[in-house]
Amino acid sequence: MQPRNMSMSGVVDLAAVKAAGEAKQKAEKARADAARTGAPAPTRLVFDVDEAGFQQEVLQRSTEVPVVIDFWAEWCEPCKQLGPILERLAGEYAGKFVLAKIDVDANQMLFQQFGVQGIPAVFAVVAGQPVPLFQGAAPEAQIRQVLDQLIQAAEQQFGIVGAPAEAAGAEDAEQEAPVPAGPYDSALAAAHDALDAGDLGGAVRAYQNVLNDDPANAEAKLGLAQAQLLERVQGLDAQQVRKEAADSPADPAAQIAAADLDLVGGHVEDAFGRLVDTVRRTAGEDREAARLHLLGLFEVIGGDDPRVVTARSALARVLF
What we know:
Oligomer: single chain
Distance between the termini: 39 Å
Order of helices and strands: HEHEHEHEEHHHHHHHHHH
Number of helices: 14
């Protein structure tokens, strides 16, 4: 039997969770402010990419935000029509995607690797996986529709949500001035204390109380995910759970329970790998159950953790 008072020490650092929650809230506020004021987008929302920088600028960045790629050339007249539209939309969407521009004349290898038949051609990369979007100078209304679908799919399937480029700089600047206490700081501190003490019911209630008033509170969402994970595994017979998982590799319920135990035990890669394999083996509702649970476990660990980044890419390879 699992002990009743389990700790997340060694799995999740609560201080890191708090910092991640604050950073996410700042990013969301910055995006909302940019959209409301119509402020111009930072230049790094639109950037040129060559073959040397493709790994870092596109593949790695695609684990945090959808990267839209505009294949173009100086001699291409339709490219000159499409390019400014995409650049303006990158600013308007305020970090929900970033735009990488690739000159096909100077980057023939990338042109061939993506199988581009003609330009302008627009692709996306999400969690390291290429996704063809459209070819030619499409109408703006159609481009918006495609971008909206891309952003929605990135969030729903992989939990990837972009953030405005200003967020990091703003956070650094604000470190010099004291940050006033937020309206939920005491409630969140009490919830963290309850979670550390093993009072799972109290932690769940405290986090839910915050979310009832502030549904977008990132710190409360992350804390609730931890507390609910611990509640799920409390009282489980670990030996029986693992036997059922070994006997039924395609049973999502058995694999989900084993993955929860893996995560609480600190075996993060094992938990993620188990559910990626379950997604690969299953279809329909079973596949969706495993995929959604995996996204929930990503929330427990935090989207910036390299193990989450790796697992997101593995999930993308299975789904695409």
